[in-house]
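In the previous chapter we treated chains in isolation. Here, by contrast, the input contains two separate entities that must be folded as one system, with a combined length of 227 residues.
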Amino acid sequence: GAGVSQSPRYKVAKRGQDVALRCDPISGHVSLFWYQQALGQGPEFLTYFQNEAQLDKSGLPSDRFFAERPEGSVSTLKIQRTQQEDSAVYLCASSNPRGGQNTEAFFGQGTRLTVV
Amino acid sequence: SQQGEEDPQALSIQEGENATMNCSYKTSINNLQWYRQNSGRGLVHLILIRSNEREKHSGRLRVTLDTSKKSSSLLITASRAADTASYFCATGPTGANNLFFGTGTRLTVIP
């Protein structure tokens, strides 16, 4: 596709339920990022992949959060035993760093997760 | 915690006026970027300024960067109602690939 695609757009989960959020980056983009955005706040970095390698997961808030990108394209962010504080918009972005570090990032529309 | 902070948090202006928002950050950077976010949507890249640049223009946008003060400003000239959105600065720290976003400025342009 032309842009970064995320699914589902909206997810309501009962507290304690596991969820999986999907990201399809722009074809050929090496770098993939996950961000968490609480209401009224800026995006907070969660994790970064270069191809299939997870090079930075310093932003993951707890061991309930897990991300993977097994073939270097599609990525999944999994949250186990969801809690109410996990309610947020989860944004995926991809970029092509061959132009250098911290190049322009292309964002998906996000998945709005509500834990009830 | 977030790397940068925008100022003001919210700004309301009349259509046709200029809007200026500021960003301060904490560490050395490769570049600084500005993004726009409409309500309920993803972020859209507006402009990137490298650490060795002081000013950059793109259409009605003008960005300045002062690395000695660790600050940047975004000027939108001749604002339009369609410019209503949240604006975020994002810094690309030296030695890292990810971006750190500020807290955002909510701009409202009144027709």
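The radius of gyration of chain B is 13 Å. The longest strand of chain B covers residues 29-37. Compare these points with the single-chain example from earlier in the chapter.
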